[in-house]
Amino acid sequence: MHRILIVEDEEIIRAALRKLLQHNGYEVAVADSVEGATGEYDLDAFDLIISDLRLPGEAGTSLIGHAPGVPVLIMTSYASLRSAVDSMKKGAVEYIAKPFDHDEMLSAVAGILAENTRAATPGEQEASGTDSSGSDPADIMYGQCAAMQRVFTLIRKVAPTETTVLIQGESGTGKELAARALHLLSPRASHPLISVNCAAIPESLIESELFGHEKGAFTGAVSARTGLVEAADGGSLFLDEIGELPPEAQARLLRVLQEGEIRKVGSTQSRQVSVRMIAATHRNLKAMTRTGEFREDLYYRLNVMQIRIPPLRERQGDVLGLSKRFLARQADRMGKPGLSLTPEAMKAMERHRWPGNVRELENAIERASILADGDVIAPDQLDLDIETGDDYNIPSSLVEGDNEQTPPPSREADSGSDLSLEDYFQHFVLENQDRMSETELAQKLGISRKSLWERRQRLGIPRKKS
Ligand SMILES: Nc1ncnc2c1ncn2[C@@H]1O[C@H](COP(=O)(O)OP(=O)(O)OP(=O)(O)O)[C@@H](O)[C@H]1O
């Protein structure tokens, strides 16, 4: 059994992570600081250390020096994304941005452990074929229907190459998981996969986050910084929501793709990098090139190979399989092994159109597991909003350009009761997202683009196709 040490000072996160890993078959020890970890344990006895970056006392990255033979996965919040780059330079095997979801953490852990086992016993893994995590897309994401099987076949074929991949799909369909599969199945798997959500980084910072900057390049640039592209050197860079990339950053990215080199903001020097690029979008990039929002030359560079992840409504055959998987996870987490769906709940799930795709399904199961009296989940607890679902089912070809279309109000609004802040947020976004960019929406709501993106994820409000 693999032994993992968690070093995290926030008790809630520490306890949740411990539970998650234990339920997935790992032996787990915990500490709340680097000093605590080194004082209490022989660090070399662990197969993996997962540590928060910011801790009271020494930073999490100092564990890399304390246990040189043990891979260290650093957890960091967006605010310290820059430090994540430094962590990678100091030797962390990977970083994961908080808040992370459980699959993301489990797949990062499985990937690192598999890679380490492979490195420790060269040749053996390939020969025995026992490497179960990260050896096939089906180990990383679920999909039995013909459409997903086609996606898996494509991933198997493209992953070992250096080809740039553009993953298309609505929000919550599993684009990030597909990117992870592409990386883990590639010869670059032992190098970092850096995932960047272009919509979650403030526009004014995105260039320096991605490409780094020189000291004095702009007000506040008190020292030179390495960017995330450089941190991915040797590995893969996953640019999610690529359609949100501002024009200047698009130009710099084109240079990386064309010349394989980056130039920091404020620098005249370029540096060669070897990065496999994977981009994803829910938007119609081709249409964006026609309106001038996205560079055509960049579009063609990115779109060498396209993988389309179908919306969940096009793979209704997978709904119950996915539900089973998420139910089993909830059952583990909550210590309720008998959790199940009533036949009516199953029917309701099969009928629902899933505008928020797999993420919505995952959230519905999580919510229902908590609300269920006992072990059985009834349709009510799933709280599937049929109206909204139908609305999102209007084919995008009909919706395109129809800025006046207003989604039906939610049930809460129908009831005429006071709107909570979240209801207000949801209404505002649904009503205005067709005619406002993410930046405008965030400005009107008085929140950052990152908060907007995070709330969309939390509330399961997908973005419509443009
Ligand atoms: N095929 C799948 N099997 C298991 N879990 C899945 C699958 N597809 C998606 N998920 C889960 O659904 C959630 C959303 O997936 P993911 O973040 O990959 O979607 P996305 O398309 O990148 O979304 P967005 O565009 O909003 O960033 C994640 O928790 C992921 O683990």
UniProtKB/TrEMBL annotation:
Protein name in UniProt: Transcriptional regulator
Lineage, broadest ranks: Bacteria, Pseudomonadati, Pseudomonadota, Gammaproteobacteria, Pseudomonadales
Region (Disordered): 393-417
InterPro entries tied to this protein: AAA+_ATPase, AAA_lid_NorR, CheY-like_superfamily, P-loop_NTPase, Sig_transdc_resp-reg_receiver, Sigma_54_int, Sigma_54_int_dom_ATP-bd_2, Sigma_54_int_dom_CS
Pfam families for this protein: AAA_lid_14, Response_reg, Sigma54_activat
Xref: CDD domains: AAA (cd00009), REC (cd00156)
Ranges of residues in domain Sigma-54 factor interaction: 141-370
Residues with 4-aspartylphosphate modification: D52
Species whose genome carries this gene: Marinobacter zhanjiangensis
Keywords on record: ATP-binding, DNA-binding, Nucleotide-binding, Phosphoprotein, Transcription, Transcription regulation
Residue span, Response regulatory domain: 3-113
The encoding gene: cbrB
